[in-house]
Design a protein that fits this description.
Elements: E1 14-18, E2 26-32, E3 35-44, E4 58-65, H1 77-80, H2 85-99, E5 111-120, H3 125-146, E6 159-167, E7 170-173, H4 177-180, E8 185-192, E9 197-204, H5 211-236
Helix pairs in contact: 2-3, 3-5
């Protein structure tokens, strides 16, 4: 039995609430159970130096955890004067995931920065960030279309992410903190709405896991991603 009482293939309750920031061009709070992440998209009419005069745009991301998003307070990274390796890794992952479904040439020479701020953490903050960040990005593009700065939304597909793991010998979907901290293996899957694989991060914690178990995790992830994409479509009014 999972600590939460969920079935092995059951997601936590997922809520994607849009329009939560007055000023951002796109915003979404992604709630995966007790993990809550605020995702905002900001449009800038400029690009990084390496893209100037190329006609292409850019999508990038920043990620951070509020001091009391966890059980005990952690200092802000700004107070420490540097970001942790974990923060760098996660924000690069979010950016790569979003760019994988963005037509950078079609968005023109502008940049969209996604900020993912963890309000409350209970496992799976990076997967909630990616899932919510896509919604915020889509909303920002929709705004540019309404302003007649773009002809259409330059996204080729949906992208979402979910965690899976081996908990007490069983493959389970969408790990919360009690499972994540005690899993024999855990993995994060980033996939598109059409089933394409963007990235897989998998780690054995106690002992190596088998190819059969990996395929079990992949099957769970594919089913979970399909549900998340439907939630994204509903939040965006696309269904």
């Amino acid at each position: 039995m999972r600590p939460s009482g969920r079935a092995p293939d059951q997601l936590r309750t997922v809520i994607l609430e849009t329009g939560v920031s007055r000023h951002a061009e796109g915003s979404c709070i992604a709630k995966f159970g007790d993990t809550h992440v605020l995702c905002t998209a900001s449009v800038e009419e400029k690009v990084p130096p390496f893209l100037r005069n190329t006609g292409k745009g850019w999508v990038t991301a920043e990620y951070g955890m509020l001091p009391r998003s966890t059980h005990t307070r952690t200092d802000r990274e700004a107070a420490k004067g540097k970001q942790s390796g974990r923060t760098h890794e996660i924000q690069r992952l979010i950016g790569r995931s979003l760019r994988s479904v963005t037509d950078l040439a079609a968005m023109g020479e502008r940049q969209i920065k996604i900020d993912c701020d963890v309000l409350q953490a209970d496992g799976g903050t990076r997967t909630a960030s990616i899932t919510g960040a896509f919604v915020a990005l889509h909303l920002a593009f929709q705004r540019l279309v309404r302003l007649e700065l773009l002809k259409s939304v330059p996204l080729t597909d949906h992208v979402a992410a979910i965690s899976c793991g081996i908990y007490e010998g069983t493959a389970v979907l969408d790990l919360d903190y009690p499972e994540d901290s005690n899993a024999q293996a855990d993995a994060n899957f980033v996939m598109t709405g059409t089933g394409g694989i963007v990235e897989i991060q998998g780690t054995a914690e106690e002992r190596p896991f088998s190819r059969t178990q990996f395929l079990e995790l992949t099957d769970l992830a594919e089913a979970g991603i399909r549900q998340l994409v439907e939630a994204q479509k509903k939040a965006l009014g696309l269904t």
